[in-house]
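Annex B, item 7. Sequence and structure tokens for protein A, then protein B.
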Amino acid sequence: MTPSISTKSTPAKDINPDDYAKPFLDFINNNPTVFHTIDYCSKRLDQAGFTKLFEKENWSETLQVGGKYYITRNGSSLVAFTIPSSYIPGNGVGKCIIFYLIILSDSIRFNQP
């Protein structure tokens, strides 16, 4: 399930908690461990056109300006990054936009009655 919540800023008085609570709880229920969550995020990145990389491979021939990539480790962590179209090779990685995701869903515990 893909949440359909807008990323635009909305005043708190205009937010219906159900618009956020239900998708969040559905996500937690469908991804009860970090491994489920990483698998879910990997599939979403694949659908968004990201290319999966492998740590032990040489990326020098793979990485391209304008590319979208991600890496997973042990099924419990994920790093996703893009290389902007305006990036000029040789300028270092300071111009790359990198998103690092650590999922802690397995540390969320609900009190059971």
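Protein B:
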Amino acid sequence: MDNAPAKGVFTECQSTPELWYSQDPWHIQSAKDICFKDCPLRSGCLGLALDLEQGQPVKLRFGVWGGMSPTERKNLELRFDIQKGTR
């Protein structure tokens, strides 16, 4: 599955990367809000992060991708694994 962003599509994260890779709770929430409100690529972005991070611990995951924090993405991965019966 190709989760790469579409060429020629501009997203907010391209102009304000400090929000997506910050440890500041306000920045993290702002990034999530933008993802869920405005981003046409949110699901593809989340899919790409899940593909790239598969099996990685939370401490090796960074930034907000597809509107989710590293912990939220790891929890989502674990839920999928449980549903598939792989954990």
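Comment on protein B: Residues 41-87 form one domain.
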